[in-house]
Design goal:
It holds the Pfam family Bac_globin. The chain has about 140 residues and is mainly alpha-helical. It has 9 helices and no strands. The chain is globular, with a radius of gyration of 15 Å. The termini are far apart.
């Protein structure tokens, strides 16, 4: 009998997801190259960190924590107040790529997750030039 392992299980369950999220936000908070993504977040990252952990838990095949707490993720709708362009996507992906490299040992799983996160990040783009759009001044202030 073949046992199917979810990505959630393959990266170590809740502990693995927590490690991934913690590393992701560490990079976002510390690396200047991540500023385009970091500036869209509040000064304190605790709430963002918890939301991403809850979302990834379900997205990776584990407990659907985000849905239980907040309903359907509606990611694009929830991100519409923020001007997200290629620079913001690239900065976000830098953080995620680094977190995956540091936290996911299996190369095939890491590559599959990188592709899935890339598609997700592309879907969040809502303006061609992100925070550089003068009409997006309110989002830049965050």
């Amino acid at each position: 009998m073949t046992t199917i392992t979810t990505p959630y299980e393959a990266i170590g369950g809740a502990e693995g997801v927590r490690r991934l999220v913690d590393r992701f936000y560490q990079v976002m908070d510390e690396w200047p190259q991540a500023w385009a993504a970091r500036r869209l977040h509040p000064e304190r990252l605790d709430g963002s960190r918890e939301s991403l952990f809850e979302f990834l838990s379900g997205w990776l095949g584990g407990p659907d924590l985000y849905v239980q707490k907040k309903g359907h993720p509606r990611l694009r709708m929830r991100h519409l107040p923020y001007a997200i362009g290629p620079a913001e996507r690239d900065a976000w992906m830098l953080c995620m790529r680094t977190a995956l490299d540091d936290c996911v040992a299996d190369a095939d799983l890491r590559e599959a997750l990188l592709q899935a996160f890339g598609a997700l990040a592309d879907h969040m783009i809502n303006t061609p030039d992100g925070g550089r759009d003068p009409a997006a001044g309110a989002a830049r202030q965050l």
